[in-house]
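Good morning C.,

I know you're traveling, so I'll keep this short. The sequence:
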Amino acid sequence: MAIAPGQTIAQNLNGLPPASDMTAPEKRLEKIILELLTLVGENPKREGLRNTPSRVARSYRELTGGYAVNVDKLINNALFDVSYNEMVLVKDISFYSLCEHHLLPFFGVCHVAYIPNGKVIGLSKIPKLVKAFSQRLQVQERLTLQLAEVINTKVKPLGVAVVMEARHLCMEMRGAQSQNSPTVTSAMLGCFRKDARTRDEFLTLIKRR
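The tokens, ready to paste straight into the viewer:
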């Protein structure tokens, strides 16, 4: 990354973008973070905080990048005709999201399965879908359902199952301050909802390590 006029080499090594690289929303967010630091009793001019507003603005652009994702472009025609009708499971997909109530992280693993109905989706697309929907302000329950619904809509399988296991810092750092209480949510569509054997097979497989 080029060093902007007036920017020192040290600032560039800190990973800060040149002023010309900052978007208008990032510049506005930078001002808001500056005010926030003052309101919580800090001195935003001290050395450790001097570049914090810029860093936070950049990090929020990344952490909420899912709003800019077009699902159809992400899938990019990676749907293939395959005569396979057994379960396809991608498990232990790491995800990170922000709780929409407190803007604190929740994170964990996601397990996604579906039963093809003549078409399969490229395996790499499933973690990408998880990332796209995770990088928005979320609640875990809605995130779980959104993932199931987008696969159901785009792939049109016989059924979809999604289970998410997550730790919520809004519960661990504040409020109840319960450190060992992971939250588990599930969404079962199609044959995973109707057929207990299919559902049990999925739940058994995701427990295996």
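Safe travels,
E.
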